[in-house]
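Box 3.1. Reading complex inputs
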Amino acid sequence: ETGVTQTPRHLVMGMTNKKSLKCEQHLGHNAMYWYKQSAKKPLELMFVYSLEERVENNSVPSRFSPECPNSSHLFLHLHTLQPEDSALYLCASSSRHPNTGELFFGEGSRLTVL
Amino acid sequence: EDQVTQSPEALRLQEGESSSLNCSYTVSGLRGLFWYRQDPGKGPEFLFTLYSAGEEKEKERLKATLTKKESFLHITAPKPEDSATYLCAVNGGTSGSRLTFGEGTQLTVNP
């Protein structure tokens, strides 16, 4: 496998469910990111994990919980989501952080909250 | 706070019809401006990094240029396979290392 792999590609969940998104990078990078992409809105950074730091966007609700067990894996745990959380969730990695802006993205997990 | 505005929101071209996409930005101190391409159902793919006014980068039919207030992505003699959403992002210093993205320009090239 190469690049950044995200699973599942599609997820439908109810507001009371608990699910997790998974991301794995095979590029040897040491920084990983979660972005949210909603229709007609810019990409929004949710979380950054690197060797040096963990950065959170303070506007991200606590119903989103990241986990980064090592430099190759990143999870986004979801619980009691709202319909407005429906979006494409993108994982990315970079060779260092702060990065040069060259991010490698996965294909995304399309989340629908009913 | 860093700001990025892309125009037009959508652009339709005929194959071979050259045009430009615009990315206007407001930052306290530019650390880099980045262009990405995103195909439907996929994640963005990195294209270019520009660091200072006057800098230009080229890749196949694409050329990115930078001034102190905006960047242009010029598309010369486009082909249908150039159809995608083109995203602009800046690292402007006020957001730390965080990138601020624009909403993108959806380009359609008809054969």
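In summary: The two ends of chain B are 41 Å apart (CA to CA).
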